[in-house]
Specification:
The complex is a heterodimer. Helix content of chain A is 47%, strand content 25%. By secondary structure, chain A is of the alpha+beta class. Chain B has one domain: 2-Layer Sandwich (Transcription Regulator spoIIAA), CATH 3.30.750. The radius of gyration of chain B is 14 Å and the shape is globular. The termini of chain B are far apart. The chains are: A alpha+beta, B alpha/beta. Chain A binds chain B through residues 26, 29-30, 33-34, 46-48, 51-52, 54-55, 58-59, 62, 65-66, 125, 128-129, 132-133, 135, 137, 139, 141-143, 145-146, 148-149, 152-153, and chain B through 10-11, 31, 33, 36, 65, 67-69, 71-72, 75, 98, 100-101, 103-104, 106, 110, 113-114, 126.
Chain lengths: 182, 126
């Protein structure tokens, strides 16, 4: 039995405005973005903050949509599911995402994240242009531009983790902070 | 050849391309999951236009948001415009950004650095 109150209380403590767990579809993203836009309007956020949060949110959600791996669950059913939460404490928005990843795909992703995290603001700008202009466009998305864009817009290092579930899969989490201070 | 016109949606911009006056306008949001599908018809329309382009081509880009998936496609559109510019039609790209939107201004400057076409950064009051 899931302790609903425990989940509620944890979310309350982190000031979660919105959370979702399940399959990420295009229609779902449209709805989430609409809800967050309305919420930020209700909270009377400054246009600058609204734009930053919205932009970073789009990249985080579309990352989930395009890149989460399909993994077999305990009953060997195909599982394509993710968790997403957005919290707000004073002038700081935090976007949490979590999705399964095949262990075989970890090193490539980790390499890209570490590269992005090693760069300064100016280097990120240069790297973005380089990938934009020369990088191969994948059918799925921006061919690796998403993480660079998140790092540029937030001005923060990307906080990530891989939690090993078993010898085949891990759970990949991102913790992205958005403020207008940077 | 007919004018090119696409209505905007919550995830895609409105596009109007007036072939008689050589004015292309892209306005709104560009955050579709599949940007290639959305932008391919525009790239094709520009391809056709390049053989009968006007002496001057004006491009007005006024985006509120765009995702990284669109950013590659927008570059493809600009590269087409670059070749139209080389082919003899004087192209100007007017990149609009809202007063407090430094990220959008910077995005325009990124394109300006890559594409060999005159850019004008146009500030819009909210």
């Amino acid at each position: 039995m899931v302790e609903v109150y425990e989940i509620y209380e944890k979310m309350e403590r982190n000031n979660i405005l919105l959370s979702f767990k399940g399959e990420v579809t295009s229609d779902l993203l449209t709805s989430i973005l609409q809800i967050m836009e309305n919420k930020m309007a209700d909270l009377q956020e400054e246009p600058k903050m609204k734009k930053k949060v919205y932009n970073v949110l789009v990249e985080c959600l579309q990352n989930l949509y395009h890149h989460m791996d399909e993994v077999p669950d305990a009953r060997e059913q195909k599982l394509k599911s993710a968790i997403f939460m957005i919290g707000k404490l004073e002038n700081l928005y935090t976007i949490f995402t979590g999705n399964y990843i095949l262990n075989a795909n970890i090193s490539g992703l980790k390499g890209r994240l570490d590269k992005v995290n090693s760069l300064t603001k100016e280097e990120l700008k240069h790297y973005y242009k380089e990938v934009l202009n020369n990088g191969e466009m994948s059918l799925k998305g921006g061919g690796g531009l998403g993480m660079i864009d998140i790092a540029r817009k937030t001005g923060e290092k990307i906080d990530y983790n891989f939690l090993e579930i078993n010898d085949k899969i891990s759970f990949f989490t991102l913790n992205i902070k958005v403020t207008t201070q940077n | 050849m007919d004018n090119y016109k696409i209505e905007g949606s919550p995830k895609t911009p409105s596009i109007t391309f007036d072939l008689g006056s050589g004015v292309l306008e892209i306005k709104g949001r560009s955050i579709p999951e599949n940007s290639i599908e959305f932008y391919k018809p525009l790239v094709d329309a520009l391809d056709k236009y390049s053989s009968s382009s006007k002496p001057a081509t004006t491009v007005n880009v006024q985006l509120e948001y765009f995702n990284t998936s669109s950013s590659k496609c927008i570059l493809d559109v600009f590269k087409k415009l670059e070749s139209i510019h080389k082919g003899g039609s004087a192209v100007t790209i007017n990149w609009h950004y809202e007063e407090d939107d430094e990220d959008m201004l910077e995005a325009g400057e990124d394109y300006q650095a890559i594409i060999n076409v005159p850019f004008k950064m146009v500030m819009v009051n909210e």
